[in-house]
Design brief:
The chain is an alpha/beta fold and about 325 residues long. Helix content is about 35%, strand content about 15%. The protein binds nicotinamide-adenine-dinucleotide and uridine-5'-diphosphate (2 copies). One uridine-5'-diphosphate binds next to helix 5 and strand 8. One of its GO terms (cellular component) is cytoplasm. Belongs to the NAD(P)-dependent epimerase/dehydratase family. UDP-glucuronic acid decarboxylase subfamily.
């Protein structure tokens, strides 16, 4: 039980939709697969290079007649016949996207170009999972979609945030120049079961540290904020955006805002260890979700306090550490 199964109808109203999910072996992608597979009219194809994703996230679908999994790197051309493309392929955690920054920007630019070329050839609708990182270290708070952002073009995060900004530009240029049907979601920090245990993002770090009875590593100053959305709410927003009438960009995230010190207290009352931060870390982040609310009828349902225990249960199972009686 992780809250995902209860939401929505599986998306895709039309008959016999063939849906491609790039990055579908990853955290959000695999939950999106679960959701879309619930509609018996959908055929789902995942392409993934397994850089940060895993076949394990899709094990319940391997061998299913309406499901196909292809090892493929989106920086290479891809020829398939599909009706919709959810384009998620891209490492999302700072430690992974900084690991090989040139590959990250290639994934964002060449990967998105290839998926747009595919969408153009077959007339598919394409949704890009962009990010709140396009707002950089924002000078407007909360962030609305009309804010253009405050991004360092040459910093260590630029491969990701500038990469996603170019990806958004490509989406709009293909839309204007070639009439491609596009959707852009600007995703804010998302958490839930199946996140990589050691992927370095804050919620997964704190939960794994609490289970291992290690101190929680709060990066300085600890007063920086983020807004955390549970994965079932995120998937619901993405499907509504894809199946709705609006191109976006639309913010999808939970406006509940926490400092990292507050988050540490939500996870568990254990020792906190303050550690050095990384360059260009945004000081605050909170989505304005009026557009998602008005245009998609969407708002998140799961509060941080209710979502964290689902994730803790999943991490305990994977780490083989039962809850103490
Ligand atoms: P994830 O790392 O779990 O998933 C990304 C998937 O893409 C992985 O399965 C990975 O193997 C695959 N991938 C990476 N590069 C690839 C390539 N070149 N070719 C094919 N596959 C490739 O991350 P996630 O959290 O599920 O994020 C999914 C999407 O959502 C990403 O586009 C990310 O930028 C966006 N996003 C996520 C968050 C978040 O908080 N999780 C926030 C903002 C945006
Ligand atoms: N592309 C792809 N699959 C397709 C069609 C195109 O991967 O089904 C790639 C193609 O290799 C190219 C990119 O998408 O690199 C952009 O294609 P487009 O037709 O827009 O541009 P062109 O090929 O004219 O440069
Ligand atoms: N962070 C932290 N401890 C950790 C990992 C991250 O305090 O072990 C902080 C980090 O400094 C940032 C916030 O948590 O301010 C969110 O970081 P994350 O890498 O999860 O995502 P980001 O929003 O930066 O992409």
């Amino acid at each position: 039980m992780n809250g995902v199964e209860e939401e929505g109808d599986g998306g895709g109203d039309q008959a016999n939709m063939r849906i491609l999910i790039t990055g579908g072996a990853g955290f959000i992608g695999s939950h999106l697969v679960d959701r879309l597979m619930r509609n018996e009219k959908n055929e789902v194809i995942v392409v993934d290079n397994y850089f940060t994703g895993s076949k394990d996230n899709l094990k319940q679908w391997i061998g299913h007649p309406r499901f196909e999994l292809i090892r493929h790197d989106v920086t290479e051309p891809l020829f398939l016949e599909v009706d919709q493309i959810y384009h998620l392929a891209c490492p999302a955690s700072p430690i992974f996207y900084k690991h090989n920054p040139v590959k990250t920007i290639k994934t964002n630019v060449m990967g998105t170009l290839n998926m747009l070329g595919l969408a153009k050839r077959v007339g598919a609708r394409i949704l890009l999972t962009s990010t709140s990182e396009v707002y950089g270290d924002p000078l407007e708070h909360p962030q609305t979609e009309s804010y253009w952002g405050n991004v360092n073009p040459i910093g260590v995060r630029s491969c990701y945030d500038e990469g996603k900004r170019v990806a958004e530009t490509l989406m709009f240029d293909y839309h204007r120049q070639h009439g491609i049907e596009i959707r852009i979601a600007r995703i804010f920090n998302t958490y839930g079961p199946r996140m990589n245990i050691d992927d370095g993002r804050v919620v997964s770090n704190f939960i794994a540290q609490a289970i291992r009875e290690e101190p929680l590593t709060v990066q300085l100053p600890g007063t920086q904020t983020r807004s955390f959305c549970y994965v079932s709410d995120m998937v619901d927003g993405l499907v509504r955006l894809m199946d709705g009438e609006h191109t976006g960009p639309i913010n999808i995230g939970n406006p509940g805002e926490f400092t990292m010190l507050e988050l540490a207290e939500t996870v568990k009352e254990v020792k906190i260890l303050t550690v050095e931060n990384t360059p260009d870390d945004p000081r605050q982040r909170k989505p304005d979700i009026s557009k998602a609310n008005e245009l998609l009828g969407w708002e998140p349902k799961i509060k941080l306090r209710d979502g964290v225990p689902f994730m803790e249960e999943d991490f305990r199972q994977r780490l083989c550490v039962p809850k103490k009686a």
